[in-house]
Amino acid sequence: MVPGLIGKFDPASTTGQNEVHWRYNLPAEVAEAKIEVRNSSGEVVYTGNAETAYGTHDFTWNGELADGSTAPADSYKLKIIAKDEDSQILDVGIAVRGTIQSVDLTGTEALFNIDGNYVYQTDIVQLYNK
Description:
By secondary structure, this protein is an all-beta fold.
């Protein structure tokens, strides 16, 4: 898991990209929380209710669109809209599971491209074995 919003989805994938796994952290219990998944053009392709309890929550999107069809291969972005009891929007931390595409070693710290999310090695939260 790495800090980031972008997840790769490919319905024909045999390497685990036929679902996108995000993790989000609510800084407090909220009155209302919504999930939005947007395609690379910024269009909302999925909406749903998010957890409202304080803490870390997982969300796995299987590519199902609002009309019941399956999304095409693309990069998708997660947005969590969380509001407190005064309808103030809270900042929500989001991480995504992805595949390392490249590593840039030209700087003082390794910079990883993980499905379009550029993160330093120290920002990687968890590694998985495929």
